[in-house]
Fold this sequence. Notes:
It is built from six helices and three strands. The longest helix is centred in the middle third of the chain and has 23 residues, at 107-129. The protein is 53% helix and 5% strand. The radius of gyration is 16 Å and the shape is globular.
Amino acid sequence: MSVALQPAVGLLERAVNYTRLALAHVTPDTLDNPTPCRAWDLGQLLAHMDDALDAFTQASVGIVDLTTSRASGDVRERIRTKACGLLGAWSKADPSAVLIGDQRLNADVVVRAGALEITVHGWDVGQATGHPSPIPDDLARLLLPIAEELVTPDDRPGRFGARVPQSSTAAYDAELLGYLGRIV
């Protein structure tokens, strides 16, 4: 891994560790539970996370295949296995850029986007299972500028809800989640 990617991969590792704890509360009984992601139940969110982990792992070799595949079996275990594989792939990776469709992105941006996605969906899983856990303050503080960089007005209202304003004394996780349209 290049020196330039080390901070982003460290952030990705922290995101995976946070989300791993939320996944421990997923059971077959919770798969139909609603999530903070508009119109997705927990099973649909987990399927999205499964696909996203595939894409972020593929990115470690410099290209992402945009087709999705549906595997069978325990999605929670699959996500855990893929998350470990993701960290292993990026700890050995050294692409300077990643081709996603016809877009070439800096590898650092892709890894930071992965950390953001994994963390926020980990929070969503906690909400859906009834075991909410705040995003650690130091992790949320690092992810907030990434969200502000990556989520543009064009992403609203399609991929993200409207920004939920927070008080000037709100914790970083509330700021991050509010920016992404989640009500804390």
